[in-house]
Each structure stands twice: as structure tokens, then as C-alpha cells.
Amino acid sequence: MRKTATPESKGAVEFMASLFRNVKPDLKGRIMPEESVRDQLDVIGRFGEESSGRMVSQHGDGNWF
Question: Could you tell me if 23 and 45 lie in one domain?
């Protein structure tokens, strides 16, 4: 069950988003879980044994935004 966001949690999310936008001004914000899972599965599908142990972003590289 999903909890209703409190004013404090909404404020915290917006504060973090504002900090992220300092690094990447075109950041749109949160994505839907379905989009996140699709991106993760795409990255996982592109990697093989040679990539074992690598830490990568949802883009399959070091771009965390």
C-alpha cells in the first residue's frame, strides 16, 4: 500500500530535485516505476560476463543523471 506524501516529504523531494537541477538543469524529476524497471532491464540485457562487478547508472554508464 502506498502512503500519502506529507507536506514535509513533498518539500524534501522538491529540495533534492532543486539540488540535482544545479547539476543538470533539464532534469524533469521523478520517473514512473515502469520506466525505471524498463531502463534497468535494458541495461542488464546489454551486459555480459566482461561487465561483471561494474557499477553503472540506469544509462549503462557513469552518467547518474
Answer: no
Could you tell me which of 5, 24, 22 has the C-alpha nearest to residue 65? 24
Is residue 23 located within the same domain as residue 52? no
In tens, the pLDDT along 6-21 reads 988 889 988 998 998 9
| Cell numbers describing residue 27 | 532534469
Q: Are residues 35 and 6 in the same domain?
A: no
Identify residue 21 by its one-letter amino acid code.
R
Q: Which amino acid is at 29?
A: G
- Extract the C-alpha cell encoding 49: 560476463
- Structural domain that includes position 20: 1-30
Same domain, 26 and 42: no
Residue among 10, 14, 8, 61 nearest 39 (CA): 61
Contact 21, 65 (CB under 8 A): no
